[in-house]
Amino acid sequence: MPRDLIVDIQKQRPQFTLEVAFRSDHEPLGLLGTSGSGKSMTLRCIAGIETPTQGRIVLNGRVLFDSALGINLPSRERKVGYLFQHYALFPHLTVAQNIAYGLRGRSKAAIHRQVAEQLQQVQLIGFDHRYPHQLSGGQQQRVALARALAPNPELLLLDEPFSALDAHLRSELEKQLLKTLSRYPGLTLFVSHNLEEAYRVCQRLLVLADGKVVAEGPKQTIFDHPGTLSLAQLTGCRNLSPLQRQSNHTLAALDWGCILQTLEPVRLTHTHIGIRAHRLTFPDQATQPNTFPAWVAWTSETPHRLSLYLKLGQPPSDHEDYHLQAEVFKDRWAEMNGRPFPWLVHLDPAQLLLLEGVSRG
Asked: DSSP characters for 299-361?
């Protein structure tokens, strides 16, 4: 029996037409994109909550939807578990009753056994008689996960499952989810607008923009070789500049005011150059190509890293006068801070992203 999900659908929307086609197997697939890109609508069509205008959805050889054949299975027959962004627990039902909701028709003993098993899996033993309002946000989300998994679905849909949680709970729930997915025998689609979150949970990514698939493949390939300006932006590249081709392996980065050498040939179709913030390095000597004097215009920090906003070639006039953003860990910053300017910054030719396309703004 095939063990995969095949989706090829269109759905007319007031804002855009959703048009997605992909295939997913046993590895969790991450659907990545900005708000309004069509991620959640894709999940809702697969679950049977929304109906595509046309197309086909096949799960493990079973046709869930086929516009040409007039097939549109109701949600309850699709064997699909859905974890919503805001839990969607029934407030008048206890934890146990919420988990048992999709088990109707089974014997009381079977339901009791499955609820107990799910409570153990999500570490909520002893919470079965509580109501949702008596639970924290993280506990509610774990109940929602248990409810989605209780009927043993063939496909689990996770729609921004951590977005309503604070940073600590998000981290804890993510670890819980990874453990659960390691034991889950079915297929998984994980929707997120957060690249790092999708990267940690999924091996493969499907990137959506304006209702269309703009990239699909192994996560590292999409991150290292985005190919287009829009995909570089969607995957969080902070440093982007229009380019002017000089030769096969030389270009002018127009916004950065520098000439760069590249490993990859510069084609006439390339419009922009990019480099990810964590790829900038600070050598002691200018012995490598693409090494420039730099001044720090300003800094911002997270608990573990600093973002350095750098002006190349001459001191900045103010905090907004910078070319590039670099990210360094705080121990590296402690080594660098206090050195006289200019520093040296190196843009490794192997880390430069040659891109095609126009800016999404």
From this structure: EEE-SSEEEEEEEESS--SSTT--SEEEEEEHHHHHHHTTPPSPEEEE--GGG-EEEBS----
